[in-house]
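quick one before i forget lol
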Amino acid sequence: MRAKPPNPKEQAKRAALNALKRARRAADKAGVELSEWEGEFLTSVAQRVETYGRAFADPEKGARGQALSGNQAIKLKEIAAKAKGENSRGPMRRGKGFGRSARPDKRADDDAED
């Protein structure tokens, strides 16, 4: 007899639960103190994935067959990076906006040659 093909929804569910467990274990192992919000996020997302098979209700927020929405996946990666000690997102810096960078003025050079 042949084995049944794997169910993609079950695979996504298992992958999401394993990623959540890995992030929490990495933080505990490294001794990194997760904020109250981060701990609650990991717990609530894991609970929703176990109960419903996915952690979001709106199908526009995530890909079909995925257990986590795009933003949840980003937050999970940030928590995992924090547990590893990587600073993936530094403090925000003030940008220069849409202004152009300073270019040497060609007219000044032309006048100097005359």
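fyi Helices lie at 8-30, 36-52, 70-84, 106-113.
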